[in-house]
Structures are given as C-alpha cells and as structure tokens.
Amino acid sequence: MNAPPALGVAEARRRTTLVIASSNRAKIVEFKELLRDLPFEVVGVSDVLSEPPAVSETESTFQGNAVKKATVVAEATMMLTLADDSGLEVDALGGRPGVRSARFAHERATDAENNAALLAALGDVEPDQRRGRFRCVLAVVDPFARPGSPPLITDGSCEGIIANGPRGGGGFGYDPLFIVPAAGKTMAELSEAEKNSISHRAVAVRAMRPILTKLSDDHLHDALRIVSA
C-alpha cells in the first residue's frame, strides 16, 4: 500500500538534487557555499553513490573534461549533475599547466608537488612575466532533458600573477601561489567570502545561476506533480 508514495518521493528527490561531479571535498564545500541560496540539495557524488564512477580527464580542453564528467555522473545517478574542469594557465609557460593542472608534477601529484613543479618551471622569470589566470568551465547535464539536448556550459576566469613562493594557508591547489593584484594577496590569503566574490569558479557559477534557477523551477514543478500523483 505504501510503495507507490515512497517511489514518488524518491523520484521527486532525484529531481531536486544537484550532484557535484567531484571527489574533491574542498571544491564541493566551495560549490555548496556558492549555490547555497538555490533550491537544490547540493551533494557530492560520493554522497549518492557508494562507488562513484571513475572518469579520466583525457580531453584536450576544460570544456571537454567538464562535459565528460557531468555526463558520466548524470547517467550513473539519474540526477542533475554539475561538473567543472578548471586550472591555471601561465603565459610564460605557453598556457601550461592548463588541463593538466592537477597532474602537472605527475599523475598522482599532491598540491605541494604541483606548486613546487610550477615554481621550478618558472625559474627566474621576472615578476612582470609571471602573469596567468585561473580558468573554470562548468557543465550541467540534466538526465531528464529531451534526448539530444546539449549540456549547459558557462565559464569564468580570474587574472593574476604567480608568486615566487607560497603564501597563505587557505584554499587548495595553486591558491598559495596565485596573487590577485587588486587584493595584493594570494588566493590562499583571502577569506572565503573574498575568494567567492572574485574566483574563476565564482564567475562561472554566477553565469550558471539563472540556468540552474530555471532548471530548479522546472524540476520542482515535476517533483510536486510526481508526489501528488
């Protein structure tokens, strides 16, 4: 007697949950803060799958990797999924590390190893030649969309300068080396609120917000219809 309502509630929850296709807990926390006022339950992929799918970031662009991750996780969870691919582009290194930012030192590199590899690659490059930017591409895949519907894409960037050594204890990745000129601090020295107002990820999320709001309205309508059926 109670099975149909339970199934309806489960289906409704799938439609009002936004899965972040990442295992990086710091990144998930950052997304939760950036999206906290949207009417979704924002969760990490490991919160809904005991064995999250392994997705190799083998594409040559940030967008390609973001779309790949979002598609695989959306198909595995049957939930609205947001994925990002982001990294650091340094002009003096021809845009490297780029899509290999998380693997710049080697395939299983730690943040400290990648930071050390970046400093070594820049060597004695002068400060005015150490310019670069953080870039982020977001992809949202809706498993309830019509077949053939393209993923939803936004992007953002933040210009900066690569320091001669790490500064600050916050953030993750290359944050301790990335000086934000307007603030005179590295990303790792900024407060969470300061970082979330200027970061590449924040810029991309701001562009994605109206898209997610529209999807939320559509999914909420569907969820209410399912529960009341």
What does this structure look like?
The structure is a single chain. By secondary structure, the chain is an alpha/beta fold. The chain has one domain: Maf protein. Helix content is 40%, strand content 20%. It is built from seven helices and seven strands; from the N terminus they run H-E-H-E-H-H-E-H-E-E-E-E-H-H. The protein has helices at 3-15, 25-34, 45-48, 62-77, 111-122, 192-198, 200-228, and strands at 17-20, 41-44, 80-90, 131-141, 152-162, 178-180, 185-186. It has a seven-stranded mixed sheet with strand order 2-1-3-4-5-6-7. Strand 6 (178-180) and strand 7 (185-186) form a beta hairpin. Helix 1 packs antiparallel against helix 7 (200-228) and helix 6 packs across helix 7. It is globular and about 55 Å long. 36% of the residues are buried. The model is unreliable at 1-7 (pLDDT under 50).
